[in-house]
Amino acid sequence: MKTTLLTLTAALTLAACAAGPAPQRPAVTEPTAWALTGGDVAPDWAGLLDPQLAALQARALAANRDVALAAQRWKQAQLLVDQSALRWTPSASLSANASRPVETQSSTRNVDIGGVSVPVTTSTGWSRSYGASVGVGYELDLWDRLAQATAAQRAQAEAARTDIAAARLLLRSQVADAYWTLAALRAQRPLAEQQLALTRETLELTRQRVREGKLLPIELDKIAVNLQAAESRLADLTADAQLQRHILALLLDEPLPGPLPEATLPAGEPPRWRLAEPATVLAQRPDVQRARLGVDAALAKLRVSEAERYPRLSFSAAVSTGGTRSSDWLSQPLASFAANLVVPMIDWQRLALQRDGARTELDTAALTLRDTLQKALADIESQRIEAERAAQQLQANAGRLREAAENERLAALRYEVGVIARADWLQTRSALLDAEQAQIRLQLTQWLRQSALFKSLGGA
Fold it and tell me: 112 - beta bridge partners?
């Protein structure tokens, strides 16, 4: 026993001296400032969602299959973490055995086969023997190998949890986009129907003036083109509304054709959000969280591969008994205790390859994190630029809308006093309707950009 303990102590001491410094997390430089500055309030959906939209989002979060699948994957990853944690607890085993084909008596008799007497030996009686044993084993985590393996599983489970957040964030944005698109289509439809009716009347008046010789026939073709555009626009509004209903049906896990809410666009313009520091904002994005957890998992795996190169020490204890009678079980027990030391001396090449593979995985995870951070930053900056562009386009169209309204007012006055024909006034009225529809489309674009910006911020 003394020799064994000395050998064990020497092996562990040599292994501890050979152990190098623990692998560290790769350095990743994070952005420190935004390209665009300014803003009024912190990012928040409060006050931007009407009750209908909030209810639709809640229904989608409760019924959507993508969110449910992400939750199932997270539960599966959690089970793997629980299994990995069992390595810390002692392992128990129970075995039982029984045997009986042991000859105890024999007899010989002659059998007549084809007129020839052949001696045949038969056995009678059997001996029964039973046994049972109970054992327990435990590995001492000398180099943190078991702890790091559990840490790797835990990081992978947390990475799966970020998929739930990403699915919920995407779902909320998609429901809002479909709802607001339906609201814009609903607001444009009466304007498009009125414009179509005006264009048809303009075409009839123009045809009459061509017959009278007051206009050239080419003017009919111009109005016919406008009529075709108005009919196509109304058909597009109908088709787009059906498509958005189908999108909502899929998001809500409901049968087609899907719900048709009385949707309305929010009043006013979206707020200009004031963002926190880039590191704080990026840390809230699910894709950045997953990339960072990927680095954590890869780092833990590298530490496991380092610990695999050093000795393992485990202990086992067992109690066994047996015999031909039940009374022998208590009179003949046997207890044993063993310490097992495994020193991987001849397998260094394979272990070195495993360590190199784990180090490569860590480098890949670090590179993925850097790439994710840069793309996330570019995504946020791009969405802010697009939001500013939408605001400027809406402002520019507001000037066009004012001009169109003034032109229509003057044309109506001139038509009343007989200065211009009705067809001329109808064209100015149609131009006003066109500007109003463009205003609604630009309002929709502005809110869709706001939704995309909110999603790119990670739901902050």
Answer: 117
What's the whole-model pTM score?
Answer: 0.80
Q: Helices 145-211 and 65-85, interaxial angle, to 10°? A: 170
Under 8 Å between Cβ of 459 and 169: yes
- 196/429 Cα distance (integer angstroms): 11
**Separation of alpha carbons 229 and 392, rounded Å:** 26
Tell me which H or E stretch contains 2.
Answer: helix 2-18
* Residues 430-450: tens digit of each pLDDT: 999 999 999 999 999 999 999
Per-residue model confidence as pLDDT tens digits over 171-193: 999 999 999 999 999 999 999 99
Q: What is the dihedral of CA 72, 74, 75, 78, to 10 degrees?
A: 160
Positive/negative CA dihedral, 154, 156, 160, 163: positive
What are the structure tokens assigned to 407, written together? Answer: 């032109």
Whole-number Cα distances in Å, 149 to 302, 442, 444:
10, 53, 50
DSSP state of 284: T
Between CA 77 and CA 71 the distance in angstroms is: 10
**Helix (H) / strand (E) containing 316:** strand 312-323
Question: With contact defined as beta carbons under 8 Å apart, do 110 and 286 qualify?
Answer: no
Q: Residue 317: which residues within 8 A CB-CB, separation 6 or more?
A: 135, 136, 137, 335, 336, 337, 338
Residues in Cβ contact with 253 at an 8 Å cutoff, skipping those fewer than 6 apart: 63, 64, 65
